[in-house]
Amino acid sequence: MNIRFYNARILTETMDITEGELWVRGNTICYIGDGEDVSSVCKEPGDVILWDREIDVKRNLLMPGFKNAHTHSAMTFLRSMADDLPLQEWLNEQVFPNEAKLKGEEAYIFAKIAIMEYLTSGITSAFDMYIYPKEVIQACVDCGFRIVQVSGLNNFTSSLEELEEQYVTYNDYHELCSYKLGFHAEYTTDKKLLEGLAGLSEKYHAPVYTHNSETKREVEECRQRYGKSPTQLFEEMGLYRYGGGGYHCIWFDDEDIDIFAKRNLSVVTNPASNLKLASGIAPLKKMQEAGINLAIGTDGPASNNCLDMFREMFLVTGLAKLREHDAAVMDANDVLYMATTGGAKAMGLSDCDCLAVGKKADLFLMDLMQPNMQPEHNLTKNLVYSGSKQNVKLTMVNGKILYEDGQFFISEEPQEIYKKANEIVSRMK
Amino acid sequence: MNIRFYNARILTETMDITEGELWVRGNTICYIGDGEDVSSVCKEPGDVILWDREIDVKRNLLMPGFKNAHTHSAMTFLRSMADDLPLQEWLNEQVFPNEAKLKGEEAYIFAKIAIMEYLTSGITSAFDMYIYPKEVIQACVDCGFRIVQVSGLNNFTSSLEELEEQYVTYNDYHELCSYKLGFHAEYTTDKKLLEGLAGLSEKYHAPVYTHNSETKREVEECRQRYGKSPTQLFEEMGLYRYGGGGYHCIWFDDEDIDIFAKRNLSVVTNPASNLKLASGIAPLKKMQEAGINLAIGTDGPASNNCLDMFREMFLVTGLAKLREHDAAVMDANDVLYMATTGGAKAMGLSDCDCLAVGKKADLFLMDLMQPNMQPEHNLTKNLVYSGSKQNVKLTMVNGKILYEDGQFFISEEPQEIYKKANEIVSRMK
């Protein structure tokens, strides 16, 4: 499909706003400009692009798609089933027993609900960890959604052999899919498995990701076991030799921050989940000052429960301000960078990290003609502080429109997906 | 207008869900039931109601309108003009100088932007304090929106005489409008004015409201001035003899909480604003345990910047969990009560506090057929943890539909309002 967006405002790499046109040819942005000098695209006199659609953006805003840099998409099956419970009860009496009942083909359905929700929030790709990677990847590919799957290696549900097989398979499976090495967490993965994973990282020169220092107890128990923090342990074991990153990263000390900075690791913060499970507030200001790449994730719908980047963006800046007792920290532009380019960097998606010629067309259209976006003092601050899913008019992944004016253009009818999902949860009860 | 909602799910006073019909006659709910036994409404055989509209709710959810229990609506003029600044700089270099430039007729325009945003978020009434009460009230009345205005008595912009005149005028002005006694804050209102206000409270047997203990510094300075906290000062001065309440109420000690409990005062919490200005987290759990009525406000758009009750609801429970280090505190049902009935109680709106026969028809329709509301394990938890403005399909105030499917039915075209607003802010720069 060739799609011409005209009469647009466009958020650039530098978080500035430019006005003009953005052209999509196939899955790629082929032109951004005033629509007058198009010699970079139409090289010969008489060259024309045949447009499948020409969209008048009416001076609304085209933005790079948000990158949801940490989630467990299929856990929509647990949404609102296990809230307002102490953390251990939540995990041991709700999450684990119910996950044990979930089948792969059911995870496929629930992943689709998450994908739809991502699209309503301008999210065009997700960094997903789950016990059914195959089914989650398939749901994404079937919907046309971009996924970076990360292995959740642990003592109970997976092995190094499976992991390596998946790594090889899904890095050569579909243009919408890639696969990273990862493990669930220090407290669920024994040292032998971690050593094996370090070996795979070495073999493939691959970065490694994991849940890291989400709770105070997790760090204390690791220190009891190994005499050091999770980050220090992973560093010593060689897991960070080729980069990677951590999810949550709340209970970090200065040494942990130094390691992340030195190894060029990404911190993926998950503020809504960290509130709902009473985990704490990540020291993002310190991390930012250390030059660490920051990204934002919703975490899974069992612990958030909303898959909404607008809510997360407000929380990133609001909680940093609260933590530092300073209303000036974590500027809106920095947060917007985290939600887009920072996320892409964490996920290895350098080809769709911003709106520029040659990049994949992963973008969304923000309706500014709504009361929450008015007046127009400052568009990026409006986006971060008062933006909402309600403003998302159109979401495109890899050049295809998957969501527009409240309608989904994925492989299946929403009502069918909801029906199947509710049948499954009825059976589970 | 007579409007019949059928095929509905309806949120009841007890936060349960019932299924059936809800009928609106004029501005009042006249029937809730299965639509079969209608003898309570159509008393004679052959009695029929002529419907202006019959709306198939398609098993979506009718809810009592949210009550925004603390705001400064017209401050949309400052949205995104003054963010990411230290508190004092924000107040002294941005808010006050820009407010000095604002005219009453301009406040009227900006109040309309806020009203529109309220409607998109299912908010049907606002408890508003501002320097231009007359214009804000008029904007609400012209739009058909319900307002409780509270006087913002202070040393600089108003007098007791004006206040009393407004109190008398606006409690007998329009069915959509009422007026409460209030002052801006301890640090902006000298003791003589407060004594005068206590006199008016006594004269009219009227409750009194104010910003209270929003920042640590405010409480410390009050203790330096008077040797006691703001709450203790106001209690001793007789300001709470007829009830009332406080906005923010973050830096409360046990004695403050006791006073609020004893006097049946309401605490209106403003969590997004308290994050963005780095003010702190209110001790809501303790207040709840003391039996204090709790309500939720967005605060004004200069300090939030979003006027969205869904964001506030998530923050109320999330921040309480964080503060208490306990994921079990502040259950979703309690939060929903705060956002509806608790707010109405704080604002003196006992005739539109819930959906019941005889109550004013202030309600909204929540679209559940969206991915963020699926599956349907638990509707109230879905509402509080993953609900969004995107789900608000229709908002009705006093029996009139003011917002439906993204369209506004207020006195003026949105584009006209935005145009005027942007012209004003351009002049201000």
From TrEMBL, chains A, B:
Pfam families associated with the record: Amidohydro_1
Keywords linked to the UniProt accession: Hydrolase
Domain Amidohydrolase-related: 62-402
Classification via Gene3D superfamilies: Metal-dependent hydrolases (3.20.20.140), Urease, subunit C, domain 1 (2.30.40.10)
Name of protein: Amidohydrolase
